[in-house]
Amino acid sequence: MDCVCNPKLTSLFEEDGSIHWERSWKPKQKSDFPLFVRAAAAEIELTSYVLLALVTKEPSPSEEELTLAAAIVKWLTKQQNSRGGFASTQDTVVALQALSQYKTFNYSKDGIDTRAILSSEYGLLREFHVDRNNSLLLQCEDLLQGPGNYTAEVTGCIFMQAVLTYNVPLEQEEAPFRLEVHTIPETCIGNNVHITFDIAMNVR
């Protein structure tokens, strides 16, 4: 199946074995986290619709199309946040629908026996075991030693996600003007107060 999009409107990108589509006129994104910038909602929704078209093909997608779908899934899962959503409500709905539909082709409870060993320079932290009884269960482990180096050794195929949260104060941009309002009198005394206002404006 050939995925054809209007070249004037969209562009296809391939990197690290993943595939996604972007708007040709996409505005430049600003990020306070230079190490990784998640895609905008429009790119996630656009790519999700391509995935949805692939996995809902009648009578069924070919092996080549499922390989292309896997590359799209690899990119989409990188855009997912720690709560399972994406950039907005609308793109989250489309992306989860496409990912769920894709999962119907490769999910089976039979024969699931996956182990993941999580360790750091201080030693073993936890061993995760995924089988048919808990394959849909979310398993988590808090990484309390940071910064640090962590290693995951996986036998089988599972979806793992590392989440790092921290506070970065945003830089305050210079405002074009500042408005201050002072009342006379400054304190509330009586019923007929604050009927006169002094307005001071500083323009930069």
TrEMBL record:
<dbReference type="Pfam" id="PF07678">
    <property type="entry name" value="TED_complement"/>
</dbReference>
<dbReference type="InterPro" id="IPR011626">
    <property type="entry name" value="Alpha-macroglobulin_TED"/>
</dbReference>
<dbReference type="InterPro" id="IPR008930">
    <property type="entry name" value="Terpenoid_cyclase/PrenylTrfase"/>
</dbReference>
<dbReference type="InterPro" id="IPR036595">
    <property type="entry name" value="A-macroglobulin_rcpt-bd_sf"/>
</dbReference>
<feature type="domain" description="Alpha-macroglobulin-like TED">
    <location>
        <begin position="14"/>
        <end position="102"/>
    </location>
</feature>
<dbReference type="GO" id="GO:0005615">
    <property type="term" value="C:extracellular space"/>
</dbReference>
<dbReference type="InterPro" id="IPR050473">
    <property type="entry name" value="A2M/Complement_sys"/>
</dbReference>
<protein>
    <submittedName>
        <fullName>Alpha-2-macroglobulin-like</fullName>
    </submittedName>
</protein>
